[in-house]
Automatic annotation (TrEMBL):
It comes from the Eukaryota. It comes from Lithohypha guttulata. Coiled coil: none annotated. Belongs to the arginase family. Agmatinase subfamily. Keywords: Hydrolase, Metal-binding, Signal. This is Agmatinase. GO terms for biological process: putrescine biosynthetic process from arginine, via agmatine. GO terms for molecular function: agmatinase activity; metal ion binding. Pfam families: Arginase. Gene3D superfamilies: Ureohydrolase domain (3.40.800.10).
Amino acid sequence: MRFLAHSIISFCTIFTSARASFYDNPTLELPPDGGTPIDELEKKWGTDFGFSGISTWAHLQHTRCLTTPSQLFDIGILGIPFDTSVSFRPGARFGPRAIRAASARQTSFRGFNARAGLNPYTSWPKILDCGDIPVSPFDNALALRQMSEAYLELLHRPALSRDESVGWVHPRIVALGGDHSIALPALRSLSKVYGGPVAVLHFDAHLDTWHPAKYPSAWFESPGAQSDFTHGSMFWIASNEGLIMNSSSVHAGLRTRLSGDDFGDYEDDDQQGFLRIETDDIDVLGVNGIVQTILGRIGTEKPVYISVDIDVLDPGIAPGTGTPEPGGWTTRELIQILRGIEGLNVVGADVVEVSPGYDDRGEGTALAGAQVAYEILTSIVKRGMVDRGLWVESEHVKPNKLVSWRQKAQEVIEGIGEKAQSVVKDEL
């Protein structure tokens, strides 16, 4: 019996020593005198988990692009922490920081967008987090000048993957606001760089084409007063400056109250050439009808600026915004629409009015903003692949086939589906 017990103990000791223990770390060795090779360092330490690392957009390389002209790029993520032109709740100056933090789970090693069939972070373009524009919080006239000059400085540079044959000469900027007034300096800069007006696809609960005088005040000094520049008047200013393509632009997701006792706001909006899609239209048209209406209005060749005010979403989903309006679209509906219009020729975009001080504990508004920016970014990358002849179809990508963009858009333009067509006729 004693022999048997001794044998069992000996066997357990041998078996235990033969196994690799959790605590059996290899012996630490000093790095070589010449230093560890860069590729080995990158392999060991070059990847972050969603919760680690400095908070840049999707853990991308951060460069102060405004002060580093030698660093060329194709797409720049640019924060614009400006919110002193709001009419209700301030706080969107903290939006860029919140959206970047919400993008933490977007990484190059897990960034593949299954609906689009590509990973924008490992594809052809060089994408940088360009940091923020240091905008004055004290003087709106100065802030507008700063934003305009910063946009123009970046947009006028050549893209790293410049290709004139496909119209990719200058980099694309995806801006993180900030309040919605940041669209005005963007449009001013785009107009100069592209030599004319661009179409605007505007997702918002509100028109933002209001004449500045619609804000009642005995102190109103229009035209030309600094108070003209607000997050509800910037498209009115842009339209009057000839920055927006008349009859080629769209509002989507509207559910705003109007001024006064009549439809005067709509009449002003009509003069600025926007087609209005109300939030409730999705109940009649469905997502596909909304998509067809947008494509029929804009097409796929005109340069277009996509501007997404996060208040297009219902405040029950995205409460962290400055001017919430109940009854909005869901995040899923907005994302489906953005995916449906992936063929647009996007030359710039913004996601604005994320105000984290009013967000819920789960940071749902910031997460929605990060996802919206990711979808827009993916579509810009994919359009570039198609134009450059790099796109290869996959059986896993659900229909919304990119190779049929132009054919599909032409069919839409020539004859939009009956439901969508009735909406367009009503608006025209």
